[in-house]
Amino acid sequence: MKSVDHLKAKLKQGETYRREDLVNFSTSIDRHLAELVGDGTLQKLSQGLFYYPKQSVFGQAPPDEKKLVRTFLKDDDFLLTSPNVYNSLGVGTTQLYNSRVVYNHKRHGKVRLGNQEFDFRLKHKFPRTATPEFALVDLVDNLGRLAEDKLSILENVARKVNVMDKKALKKAVDKYGNVGTKKIFAPLL
Predict the structure, then answer these.
(1) Whole-angstrom Cα distance, residue 8 to residue 55?
(2) What is the model's pTM?
């Protein structure tokens, strides 16, 4: 008989798990998960999603965001980013946002996983990592969602185009930009 100790022995600190990933290690998975959540071994992040906290010198470390999203989506094909990335472009954005955006092919909408909220957005194409060119295109794509002076930002984007790799930027606009973004960049490239 597979006991709660057998299940616990299969867990690793710092990892996130789906209920379905653990079902083979227990004969009574729901009761065993409830016991492990009750004794503090696991934290329930959302329906069917659990985290085995890793201890650090400052206490329990939160789950790694990429691992958490990977476990939630059951997929590696996503881009985890934030509107705060725009601040590094030097186009006048200064706001700090307490949000994480996940471009993916499966989910859409805001989802709370543990203490964090993720904004899942369906997008047909996105890079594996956010390049400066993608970030600039993404900024223009999402300008309406930002608490910034839009005209000022667009003027700064026009200036920024002149100091960026235009070939790489054109490729990013063609590949990742929405229709409105392509219209804005067309005369600049």
Answers:
(1) 16
(2) 0.88
